[in-house]
């Protein structure tokens, strides 16, 4: 395995960390190990509680060399001791929630998040006797006020789907530390290149590796990075007992994609900036939110907290009817950008999210929380994941449907 103290740069890390020439064949590129079981050299126990990080490979649900290689690569880039990969981003979120939380515990969770996480927090956690308070994470006083003696977890998402609202991660980490709670952050939109979440005090850095880390729209997976002790507990609970493991084939594909993550993030940022500036100057666009734009209400925080603004942006065109009509035209007439969910791929993807609809199905906010959401989203937003195509082609495609 390449020596991780032999390099410091993000690109070298993304390419070499977690892998090395095959000791038997000398192959430069990693093999995929598909074996579900391993021939043991000595008689040992068969309980997750006997697991240690350097246990030999035993069974594929415990650990797998191809998955381990990806985990080491992600941990190296994220700058954490350890990483656990799972079958999806949602499996990663569930792993955190169902390992850290138990019946009678309380969690403070961002009132705006990926819809699946929002629904898990609102519908599933309470079913297991876990109390949940949903808080606008930009309101630090509200986060502090939400803390209770039994608060064990604060879960943030930055930038937050779909509105590109940021959370001051260092400030939230400080509140969590004082409360004796863990801070988990869904950093999917930023990727490990976009922000050093662990350096900002985040205990569990979560990613849907389906998005930027894999980067090519062909493999679903999730990851949680953090201290070895915490990730070990997560492995026992979420991988070995709940069983939502990543397939070795997906791990291999995602590791292959991840090698170019720093290079791709530079391309995403450059393209997103060009597209954001075009949209901002277009008469039919009423609002654009991109952390890299000076007009983003949290641009100062973005500059302090992020080292790459990523390729995610959102924009508005006016009321819901105007947005719905444009979405229909996009689905029909876009020639380069795909009208599709998901994000972080080399292909550009756009999706329309009317505020009334998403409030009903997922977020269910009212009062100040709804107002803060609407400050970013109005009656609805288009979420655009700017891919790696030439910006001029993306701009021409958008210009054509905007009319
Ligand atoms: C996609 C996504 C998820 C869920 O990930 P899957 O891999 O689709 O399960 C969670 N959080 C964010 C921010 C996402 O974009």
Structure explained in plain terms:
With 403 residues, the protein is of the alpha/beta class. It folds into 2 domains: 10-258, Aspartate Aminotransferase, domain 2 (3-Layer(aba) Sandwich); 262-402, Aspartate Aminotransferase, domain 1, CATH 3.90.1150. Helices cover 41% and strands 15% of the residues. The chain has helices spanning 10-16, 65-78, 89-100, 115-127, 140-146, 169-179, 191-194, 228-241, 248-258, 261-281, 299-305, 320-333, 355-363, 367-377, 391-402, and strands spanning 82-86, 106-110, 131-135, 151-157, 182-186, 204-208, 222-226, 287-289, 312-316, 338-339, 349-354, 380-385. Helix 7 (191-194) links the parallel strand 5 and strand 6. The model has no long low-confidence stretch (mean pLDDT 96). Pyridoxal-5'-phosphate is lined by residues 88-90, 114, 116-117, 157, 161, 186, 188-189, 208, 210-211, 220, 222, 343. Residues 88-90, 114, 116-117, 157, 161, 186, 188-189, 208, 210-211, 220, 222, 343 line the site of pyridoxal-5'-phosphate.
What is the gist of this entry?
The protein has 403 residues and is an alpha/beta fold.
- What's the overall average pLDDT, rounded? 96
Beta-strand proportion: 5-15%
In DSSP terms (H or I, runs of 4 or more residues), the helix count works out at 15
Tally of DSSP β-strands: 12
- What summary fits the major beta sheet? 7 strands, mixed
Q: Could you tell me which ligands this complex binds, including any ions or cofactors?
A: pyridoxal-5'-phosphate
The CATH topology of the largest domain:
Aspartate Aminotransferase, domain 2
Shape: globular
What's the number of domains?
A: 2
């Amino acid at each position: 395995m390449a020596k991780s103290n032999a390099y410091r740069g993000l690109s070298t890390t993304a390419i070499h960390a977690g892998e090395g020439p095959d000791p038997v064949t000398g192959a430069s590129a990693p093999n995929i190990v598909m074996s579900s079981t391993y021939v043991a050299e000595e008689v040992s126990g068969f309980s997750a509680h006997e697991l240690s990080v350097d246990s030999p490979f035993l069974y594929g649900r415990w650990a797998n060399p191809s998955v381990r290689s990806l985990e080491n690569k992600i941990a190296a880039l994220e700058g954490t001791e350890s990483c656990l990969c799972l079958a999806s981003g949602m499996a990663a979120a569930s792993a955190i929630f169902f390992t850290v939380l138990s019946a009678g515990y309380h969690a403070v969770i961002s009132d705006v998040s990926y819809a699946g996480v929002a629904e898990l927090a609102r519908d599933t956690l309470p079913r297991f006797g876990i109390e949940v308070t949903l808080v606008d994470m930009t309101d630090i006083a509200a986060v502090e006020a939400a803390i209770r003696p039994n608060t064990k977890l604060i879960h943030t998402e930055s930038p937050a789907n779909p509105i590109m609202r940021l959370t001051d991660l260092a400030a939230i980490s400080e509140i969590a530390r004082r409360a004796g709670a863990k801070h988990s952050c869904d950093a999917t939109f930023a990727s490990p290149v976009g922000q050093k979440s662990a350096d900002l005090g985040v205990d569990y850095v979560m990613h849907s590796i389906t998005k930027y880390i894999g980067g090519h729209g062909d493999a679903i997976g999730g990851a949680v990075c953090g201290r070895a002790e915490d990730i070990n507990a997560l492995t026992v609970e979420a991988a070995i007992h709940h069983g939502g493991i990543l397939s070795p084939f997906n791990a291999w594909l995602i590791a292959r994609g991840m090698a170019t993550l720093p290079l791709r993030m530079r391309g995403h940022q450059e393209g997103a900036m060009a597209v954001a500036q075009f949209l901002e100057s277009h008469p039919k666009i009423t609002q654009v939110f991109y952390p890299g734009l000076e007009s983003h209400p949290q641009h100062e925080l973005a500059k302090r907290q992020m080292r790459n603004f990523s390729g995610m942006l959102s924009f508005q065109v006016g009321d819901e009817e105007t947005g719905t009509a444009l979405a229909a035209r996009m689905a029909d007439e876009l020639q380069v950008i795909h009208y599709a969910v998901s994000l972080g791929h080399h292909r550009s993807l756009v999706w329309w999210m009317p505020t009334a609809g998403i409030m009903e199905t997922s977020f269910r906010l009212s009062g100040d929380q709804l107002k803060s959401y609407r400050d970013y989203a109005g009656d609805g937003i288009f979420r655009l994941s700017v891919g790696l195509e030439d910006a001029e082609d993306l701009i021409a495609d958008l210009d054509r449907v905007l009319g």
